[in-house]
Amino acid sequence: MRIIGLAGWSGSGKTTLVTKVIPVLVRRGLKVATVKHAYHEFDIDQPGKDSWLHRQAGAGEVAIASSRRWAVVHELRDAPELTLEDMLAKLSPVDLVIVEGFKRHAHPKLEVFRAVVGKPLLHPDDDCIVAIATDAPLPQASVPVLMLDDIEAIADAMTAEAQPCERIASRESA
């Protein structure tokens, strides 16, 4: 498995870009998985549903299965958050893992940047950023700049810059 990330400030368009680039990669014959880091509590269960009630009752893990998909919800309780390496180890084998978030982690990343967000570029301070996907020219950039609407070029860069998962290492948690 190879890994590439998308990093950027909230509102920069990371999720929008992921949803546009995945179909291109899949059409190219790649099996793709994603890992999304959430900086807040999240729930994939619906309050009141059986699996939610199981967790509320104290189950540490709840598996939910149907004819179309399955999921396992693992409650951390007081345990520490999983590292990216831990998350990658739980995935089924694929060709490419796209990581959204985990921006302080040492894996290759494309920065998603929009000036209207009002935040500075990440790339001057992160040597793992291999390119920037943006909506405007960035002559000051010291890495390749790709236009956000050029999804084919972004897919090319992601596949070219992805590294084997074994080569990545954590700088610090998310």
Quick summary:
This protein has 174 residues and is an alpha/beta fold.
What does this structure look like?
This protein is of the alpha/beta class. It has a single domain (2-41, 80-167), classed as P-loop containing nucleotide triphosphate hydrolases (Rossmann fold, 3-Layer(aba) Sandwich). The chain contains four helices and nine strands, in the order βαβαββαββββαβ. The strands form two sheets. Strands 1, 2, 5, 6, 7, 8 and 9 form a seven-stranded mixed sheet that branches. Strand 3 and strand 4 (70-74) form a beta hairpin. The chain starts with a strand and ends in a 10-residue tail after the last strand.
Low-confidence stretches: none
Q: How would you sum up the major sheet?
A: 7 strands, mixed
The assembly state of the depicted protein chains is single chain
Taking all Cα atoms into account, the compactness measure Rg is 18 Å
- Counting H and I runs of at least 4 residues, what is the number of helices? 4
- Quick check: average pLDDT? 89
Beta-strand content: 15-25%
Number of strands: 9
- C-alpha termini separation: 21 Å
At the first level of CATH, what is the class? Answer: Alpha Beta
Helical content stands at 10-25%
Category from helices, strands and their pairing: alpha/beta
Q: Domains counted in the coordinates: how many? A: 1
What CATH architecture label applies?
Answer: 3-Layer(aba) Sandwich
The arrangement of helices and strands along the chain is EHEHEEHEEEEHE
